[in-house]
Write a structure and sequence with these properties.
43% helix; globular; 14 helices; 351 residues
Length: 351
């Protein structure tokens, strides 16, 4: 299984508690990535052939940095991030550092800066995390074991009692699962890649903004017509809480594939993991429901925020790398909207 590229580390922005310690198998030693190299015990020739074949069917599946040109010639850039604070991921390529230094504005998935006291208070409001009174508690028995227990264990990591979870919305539970457990050891002083990029840009004088407000994520997932998507997202993230996530070589291989720009292959790996774990039918259904909101809907929503940034030029848009590929990925959506999107091939990436 690979690590997730498709959703942000939102705990601090959404007012969830800061991490205390990871689950028992997420030890500092297991989490440490000395060097981002492919482990052939993980990426076997057979697995690589399967995932490469699947990735070949995904448009725009290779590459992390894209040059976006508006109709008037204004140039901006799109960067696919990896939401972890590991040094191997924070070692940004020179071409991206040049884009950051020259950026007029950097747009993340979520706006990390409150514009007013009222907005700051809104960002700390946690009502969306809880079922409205007098709703019945939700034990989530449809989530199979051992992953239901893993959710409880992850909540206990943050100091939350097990009794809390049946009182929470799926959006609230998901907010506890978004962060990589291995990041628990670093997040107190080292930002994830998205926020590292934003910090460098802001310190250099650029404006920092977001494509949506932090609370919109929870509010949108709580809407009744997204109930199935919210439950599927909880299940899909729970699958990454087991000891398989820190099997020797998994993180190193994931990081190496990301550095090579093989985003479509990483997504194919993730898709196969869901199907193998949940069964073919439920795996496909879970992936489609979760990605329907987490990727596709949010990409479409972001387009309204992207247009004025890209039309002025000088923007760097930094979002999870899984948002970029596919027929309904951001690269395709931008082209459909009249922008020219050209891949910038980086040293060490696959052509």
């Amino acid at each position: 299984m690979r690590l997730r590229l498709s959703a942000p580390i939102l705990a601090a922005l959404l007012g969830a508690p800061l991490p205390l310690a990871a689950q028992d198998w997420f030890t500092p030693e297991a989490c440490l990535v000395g060097e981002a190299v492919i482990d052939r015990n993980i990426l076997t020739p057979g697995a690589e052939a399967r995932w490469e074949a699947a990735a070949a069917q995904i448009p725009n599946g290779t590459g992390k940095l894209w040059r976006i040109t508006a109709a008037g010639g204004e140039v901006s850039h799109l960067w696919g991030t990896y939401h972890v604070p590991d040094p191997a991921i924070l070692d940004l390529p020179d071409a991206l550092r040049e884009v950051i230094a020259a950026a007029r504005v950097v747009a993340l998935e979520f706006d990390p800066l409150a514009d007013s006291p009222a907005e700051l208070r809104r960002s700390y409001d946690q009502n969306w995390m809880w079922l409205p009174f007098p709703a019945e508690p939700d034990p989530r028995t449809d989530i199979p074991q051992p992953w239901r227990d893993y959710i409880y264990q992850r909540a206990e990591t943050f100091g939350w009692m097990r009794d809390y979870l049946p009182q929470m919305t799926d959006a609230g539970v998901l907010s506890l699962l978004l962060a990589d457990p291995c990041a628990d050891y670093l997040s107190g002083f080292l930002p994830g890649q998205d926020y590292y990029i934003a910090q460098q840009a802001w310190l250099g004088g650029a404006q920092v903004t977001g494509l949506q407000k932090p609370w919109e994520f929870g509010d949108q997932l709580n809407e009744p017509h997204r109930a199935a998507a919210a439950r599927a997202a909880v299940l899909s993230y729970a699958l990454y809480l087991g000891p398989e996530s820190v099997e020797k070589g998994v993180r190193e291989t994931s990081f190496a594939l990301y550095r090579e720009g093989r985003i479509g292959l990483l997504d194919a790996w993730s898709s196969e993991w869901l199907r193998n774990t949940l069964g073919e039918a439920r795996g496909r259904e879970t992936e489609a429901l979760a990605n329907g909101y987490l990727l596709i809907e949010r990409n479409a929503m972001w387009m309204d925020a992207l247009r004025p940034l890209l039309d002025e030029g000088g923007a760097l848009v930094a979002v999870g790398a899984s948002h970029l590929p596919g027929d309904l990925g951001l690269v395709a959506m931008l082209r459909d909207a009249g922008y020219r999107a050209e891949r910038v091939t980086l040293p060490g990436e696959r052509p």
